[in-house]
Amino acid sequence: MSKRYKVMAGVLIAFLAVLILAEASQPEPINWFKGYGKQDKIPFGTYVFHEQLPSVINANRIEEVNIPPFEFLQDSTLPAGSTYFFLNGSVYNDATESNKLLEWVGRGNTLFVSAGSISKTILDSLWLGLNFYSETANQKKRPLVNFTNPRLKAERPFRLNKDVGTVYFDEIDTLKTTVLGVFDLIRDNDSSQIKKPKVNFIKTPYKNGTVYLHTFPEGFTNVFMLDSTNAEYTAKALSYLPDDGTIYLDQYYKNSKEYAVSPLRLILTNKYLKWSWYLLILVAILWVIFEGKRKQRSIPVIQPLPNKTLDYTRTIAGMYLDKKDNRQIAMHQINHILEHIRSVYTLSTERFSQDFVEKLTAKSGKPQSEIKTLVDYIILIRQKAVVSEDELIKLNTLVENFKNTH
């Protein structure tokens, strides 16, 4: 990396670090997600509720359930007189699971559901109807809640100081259903009374058991319980639960799961770790851009070595010609043609017999007379002590004719 690139990278990293530091130093925005998770300390989590629950109900009676109700209720050893407690923004059991729950309730158990959306199968089985309450004339959607029982009813209704959607029972079986709680929206900034009550908490029997339905799950959240005396409302709502028997707290139907589904959740939920993680990624990207480029010095052009074979041959031939050593040149010529025969036709050249001539004729495709003339002349030259220039030329002619006509 050149010095210029290093300076640019340093300035860019410093600029990004300042931006990240400025962002990380900002106060973390409030998370208004309605998670209802027991581990969530956000406004609409239920951390406070689960922390305070053992002070209202004996902890030995509480058992958490992390599997679907249909699967949990398959256990035939569950004791009678128990309570199944659901708390979430929506608890929508399908028809099969709803019937399984009602069947379990009918054997003398209790079902308590606090949710803004409840299974239609359960509502239809209990002759109930839900409706979303909205009043366009009232811009604020901050609910007031209270009980109908004179012993539990507070002088001033309990207030949630946050705009939320509200649901109420618009159809109930008045012969069987008991109204336990009502709500209304704040009107004219007057939170001292509920002027137009709507039913949001009921009790209804089902065979040998009891069903409690509560459409204000926000009453069990952190933001509600930590505001003024609102925790009193939560405790009074729980007072309707049976005094004995196991209470099964559902942890399956939750908008926010207790266990992280991503390994990075711990990092991304902490703003300091999150911005450190982002900075690490940015630095890695910059490294790839500036340092990850292929580095290679220029490769010098190397000229191939020239073929000196022809020059060498000419030099050697010139030496022999200058010395007039025709026989030595002839021997080289003979050795050359014999090596050619061995390598091309795979024939042994130790003996020049009639069989050798016939095989060379067959493999080379040349006339046998030509092959015979070449072989006889090679034998003749080998026997001579002195080779004339004409004989050397004739040998060369025979060799070249044999090779060139191939």
UniProtKB/TrEMBL annotation:
The chain crosses the membrane at residues 272-290. The keyword Transmembrane applies. Keywords: Membrane, Transmembrane, Transmembrane helix. The keyword Transmembrane applies. This is DUF4350 domain-containing protein. Residues 40-236 form the DUF4350 domain. It comes from Leeuwenhoekiella palythoae. InterPro entries: DUF4350.
